[in-house]
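Changelog note: in this version the structure field was regenerated for every chain. One regenerated record is shown below for reference.
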Amino acid sequence: MKNKSALTIYTALLSCLVFLLSVNITEAQENDIFELSNNLKTSKSSISKKKNRSDFYNLTYKLHSTIYIGKNSIEKIYGKGKAKKLTFSDTDSFSLLNNNSKQYNDIELITITLRSPTDLNKSLNLSNTNKFTNLKYIFIRCYFKCTPEQIKAFVKSNSNVRVFYSNEIPS
C-alpha cells in the first residue's frame, strides 16, 4: 500500500513540475521581443503601451499585404490591396525610401533584419519624412547580440512610432 501512495505522490509532483515549466516557457517567449522606451513619454502611458502589444503582434505574425525589399530593389509584393508591412532583408536598400512613391503611405510596420554588427553603421532616419503617415511600429531582428543603445543609434523616428527589437541568433 505504501508503494502505491508513493507512486501517486511522485506522479502528482512530476505533473506539477511539467506544468510549471511549460507555463514559464510560454511566458518567456514574449520577453524575447524588447521595446525601446521613449524618455519623453510619461510613465503611465508607456506602461499602458507595453501591455497593449496585440496590434503589433497581429501585424508581425499574421499575413498582411507586404512589400519585400532587398538588394536595393523591390523583390516581391505579397497580397492584394494597400501594403501594411515593409520588410527589409538588408540595410543597403534604405535608399529606396527616397523614392516619391505613394505605396509607403499605408505602411504600419517596418521590419528590418540585421545580419551583422556592421549593419548598424547604416542608420535609418524616418524622423523628417512625411511618407509614412500611418507608421506605428518598427521591428528590428538582430542575428547577433545587440543592445538598446545600438538600436536607438540605428533608428531615428517620430515619438509616436514604437520601436521593437529581438536578438535571434541563428544556429
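Spot check on this record: Helices lie at 2-30, 43-51, 54-61, 148-154. Confidence is low (pLDDT under 50) at residues 24-29, 39-47.
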